[in-house]
Design a protein that fits this description.
By secondary structure, the protein is mainly alpha-helical. Helices cover about 60% and strands about 5% of the residues. The chain has nine helices and three strands. The chain has a three-stranded mixed β-sheet with strand order 1-3-2. Helix 3 crosses helix 4. It is globular and about 55 Å long. It starts with a helix and ends with a helix. The model has no long low-confidence stretch (mean pLDDT about 95).
């Protein structure tokens, strides 16, 4: 009985993600390769979604809850993960303050998402988010994760302000990100190489 229940829940989760991928593809066909890379794996206790560049891990309860509230939350989470891979955040050297680096990566991706004009990912922005974006634009010509990290370091934010940024911008679970210094054995292309190829093709297109 328990196994049947788990299989049913996993089927629902996979169907939600498949529908999300299809909706994203419908509006952003230039992401066709990127959207087709990740396989789905149910992983309870995941903070909503996460990826290692090969699989999309998800907590079924959190996924279903967000889908019921607003399916755009799932679309944004899915694309947020894919953007991390396109920008190769998973494989970049870790910064001294790992939590601040994770936050900078998330802010950069949300900034990109909020700049895209597609209904499938559009949500009203909070005044806090818009004010922070104004700060980004004033300080950085191009708000990359690296630039945002340096900016946040220089701001020397108190704990309560960092917590506020975390609540606003942290979307996915980065605990699945691989060790960027690791070199898996074997001759098969690594996830990083696959995403390098996808990113280069997107730039060419």
């Amino acid at each position: 009985m328990q196994k049947e229940t788990e299989e049913r829940i996993q089927k629902i989760g996979n169907e939600i993600l498949t529908a999300s991928r299809a909706e994203l593809y419908l509006h952003m066909r230039f992401l066709d390769l990127a959207l087709s890379v990740l396989s789905y794996e149910m992983r309870p206790s995941t903070a909503f979604m996460g990826t290692d560049g090969t699989s999309l891990f998800y907590d079924p309860d959190k996924l279903i809850d967000r889908y019921r509230r607003n399916r755009i939350l799932v679309n944004r989470g899915y694309l947020h993960l894919v953007l991390h891979c396109i920008f190769r955040h998973l494989w970049k050297p870790r910064r001294e303050d790992r939590e601040l680096w994770d936050l900078a990566c998330d802010i950069a991706m949300e900034f990109v998402l909020d700049g895209l004009p597609y209904r499938s990912i559009r949500l009203p922005s909070t005044s806090f988010r818009q004010n922070f974006y104004d700060t980004l634009r004033a300080k950085l010509k191009v708000p990359t994760a690296e630039g945002i990290y340096i900016m946040l370091e220089e701001m020397r934010l108190p704990v309560w302000q960092r917590d506020r940024l975390e609540r606003e911008f942290r979307i996915d679970d980065h605990s699945f990100w691989p060790n960027p210094d690791g070199n898996p054995p074997g001759g098969a292309p690594t996830p990083r190489q696959k995403w390098d190829d996808i990113s280069r093709k997107m730039q060419t297109d």
